[in-house]
Specification:
Distance between the termini of chain B: 40 Å
Number of helices of chain A: 14
Radius of gyration of chain B: 21 Å
Strand order of the largest sheet of chain A: 1-2
Distance between the termini of chain A: 35 Å
Strand content of chain B: 25-35%
Number of strands of chain A: 2
Oligomer: heterodimer
Strand order of the largest sheet of chain B: 5-6-7-3-8-9
Radius of gyration of chain A: 23 Å
Chain lengths: 321, 285
């Protein structure tokens, strides 16, 4: 246990920049841009912001209950969207973390130091997976909460400044607690979802003698292009769209959290539409869909097999050239 | 006697070149063994095989274990510095100590602190900010604070100044070594380690060319300074090596009784470096 905690700390020390500073930077940028926007708006338009010829404060006061519900929905979509920003940054960090996870130590020869310690290759690989699936997401989770609190405060103050009751229009209808709960439950679900990606990236990282990024990305791209050609040239019906969606996307990009829809299929987190808003994706419904889809578990099995491959290469691969 | 290392028919191939060509070894507890050989002789390959860092053919057991399949269990009892400056560049002194303390049950923090107190290293320093010598100092402090049964040092003092090197070997002998431990050292600075060694292994072209205790070495090899008129007689005894200093020849013999050589001139026990040079002579030719 002590070994495990120490190993995890070591991952954090090495990756403080990605695990800790990256979400903080995202928060800082989002909050700063918001404040700037609001301040500029305040000074150029002032309290004359009107809708249909009436000051906003007046409109709200006279708003019927069903309209207020729509406001609540918008706010919760907005909050989920903010979480998505942090999660997207987390995805980028994890993608590069995993690509370097078993390669960098061979490149800088520090693997000779790590291997002089009584830690098995399996333990090492496992710690890195836990760092990617629990440690970094937990930090991002806290960062998401921080972002929500700051944004609700900033926008609330802006409302209050403009004679709009923030309690009624913002703080009351917002449901951050529910969102935070779903995000927390989502951490282990996303871990299972990400297994194929974790497996592939770590396998390449443990195996490549150089340029792990190129191997990780171009092998699947070239495989896909070849499949598409075959598809076009012959009547052999290898469904290449299936490949791009179920193999390529899952293998490379399911390390990005919440890249599934309410049916448990892959979708890139940034394509939203009316019925699949961030608030719909970050929901217990989509989490349940992921867990009850067979493909998720097939992917997890494939990912685990590749992780076993990564352990094998961690043990037998020598230094990079 | 307890065998720490046993190798029989150890081989290692890299593609078509054979780095180790059938090495037989047997090292007992309580020895300080110098593994000495020219560049490319296979020293590092042998050490890597011992430490489970590389695959090999033949038989090899370290403390009764197969290093390749049981590396992490073996590392409870074996410590090594396989190459200089392999500490990760991002790590801080404080973190490195905490890490080793966390994963190694035989690590003593107080010992490590004592070693570090003799250096200029500070807890917050990162490896990337250190000179090569400082990195080595940190690595040595970490490793020497581990109470291991076998310590393997591959060129441990490369990049260190002569003051620290002397100090290091003194510390290794006085504070670290005891009869329960075994140490294997490779280095090019042969003169600096010969006084602490108990045994020596010469390795040449992937095979052991000489394996002897230091005492045996003293009785086997003799150096004679021969005046010109006796040179012919001396050459008849088939010296390993001849060099001339101030018009006199210095000849090195293997296995010729000293009494016989006394007649030719002034005899003395040669240094390890002289024996090494004499036996490795043809390597670069």
């Amino acid at each position: 246990m002590n070994t495990f905690v120490t190993q995890l700390k070591r991952e954090y020390w090495e990756n403080r920049g990605g695990f800790f500073r990256a979400p903080i930077v995202v928060i800082g940028v989002v909050v700063l841009i918001t404040i700037m926007g609001l301040v500029v708006g305040q000074f150029s338009v002032g309290s004359h912001i009107q809708m249909m010829g009436m000051p906003i404060s007046k409109i709200i006061d006279g708003m019927p209950a069903d309209k207020l519900e729509g406001v609540a929905r918008s706010i919760n979509i907005g909050l989920a969207g903010m979480s998505m920003l942090v999660q997207f940054a987390l995805g980028i960090v994890l993608f590069f973390y995993l690509i370097g996870s078993l390669f960098d130590e061979r490149k800088d020869r520090s693997v000779l130091f790590w291997k002089s310690m009584p830690v098995s290759d399996f333990q090492t690989v496992l710690t890195k997976i836990v760092a990617a699936t629990f440690l970094a997401p937990a930090i991002a989770w806290v960062a998401g909460i921080l972002l929500h609190v700051l944004m609700l405060a900033v926008i609330g103050i802006f409302f209050w400044f403009n004679d709009v009751n923030p309690m009624k229009l913002l703080w009351g209808p917002a449901e951050p607690l529910k969102l935070w709960g779903v995000m927390l439950v989502g951490i282990p679900v996303n871990a299972i979802w990400a297994l194929p990606s974790i497996g592939w990236l770590m396998l390449v990282s443990s195996w490549a003698r150089g340029k792990p990024f190129l191997w990780a990305v171009f092998v699947p791209v070239i495989a896909g292009i070849l499949l598409t050609w075959f598809d076009a040239l012959s009547s052999l019906s290898i469904p290449d769209t299936w490949y791009w969606k179920e193999v390529f996307a899952r293998g490379l990009f399911s390390i990005f959290p919440w890249t599934f829809d309410t049916a448990g299929a892959f979708r890139f987190g940034l394509e939203f539409s009316k019925d699949s808003t961030p608030a719909d994706l970050v929901s217990l419904k989509s989490l349940l869909a992921v867990l009850t889809t067979l493909k998720t578990w097939l992917g997890a099995a494939a990912g685990s097999a590749m992780i076993a491959g990564a352990v094998y290469f961690r043990r037998y691969r020598e230094l990079t050239d | 006697m307890n065998k720490v290392i046993e190798a029989r028919g150890l081989r290692k191939r890299y593609g078509k070149t054979e780095a180790i060509k059938g090495v037989d070894l047997s090292i007992e507890t309580g020895k300080i063994v110098g593994l000495i050989g020219p560049n490319g002789a296979g020293k590092t390959s042998v050490l890597k095989a011992m430490l489970g860092l590389t695959d090999f053919e033949g038989e090899l057991t370290i403390l009764g274990r197969n290093p390749h399949t049981e590396r992490h269990a073996l590392m409870q009892d074996v410590c090594f510095i396989a190459d200089v400056a392999v500490l990760p560049r991002w790590i801080r002194v404080r973190e490195a100590i905490e890490y080793v303390a966390g994963v190694h049950p035989r690590f003593s923090r107080s010992k490590c602190d004592a070693f570090l107190a003799k250096t200029k290293l500070k807890p917050e320093m990162r490896v990337r900010e250190m000179s090569k010598g400082m990195i080595v100092q940190l690595h040595l402090a970490l490793v020497m604070a581990i109470d291991a049964k076998l310590l393997v040092l591959d060129e441990p003092t490369l990049g260190l100044d002569v003051l620290y090197r002397k100090d290091f070997y003194q510390t290794l002998l006085n504070d670290y070594f005891d009869g329960e431990k075994t140490i294997i050292v490779t280095t090019h600075q042969v003169e600096e380690i010969e006084h602490i060694l108990t045994d020596v292994l010469f390795i040449k072209d992937g095979a052991i060319s000489l394996s002897a205790t230091m005492d045996e070495l003293g009785s086997r090899f003799t150096e004679v300074m021969v005046p010109v008129d006796k040179r012919e007689a001396a050459l008849a005894l088939k010296p390993l090596d001849e060099r001339s200093v101030f018009g006199k020849s210095i000849l090195l013999y293997d296995g010729v009784p000293r009494e016989q050589l006394d007649a030719l001139g002034e005899t003395r026990t040669p240094g390890l470096a002289d024996i090494f040079v004499a036996t490795m002579k043809e390597t670069y030719q």
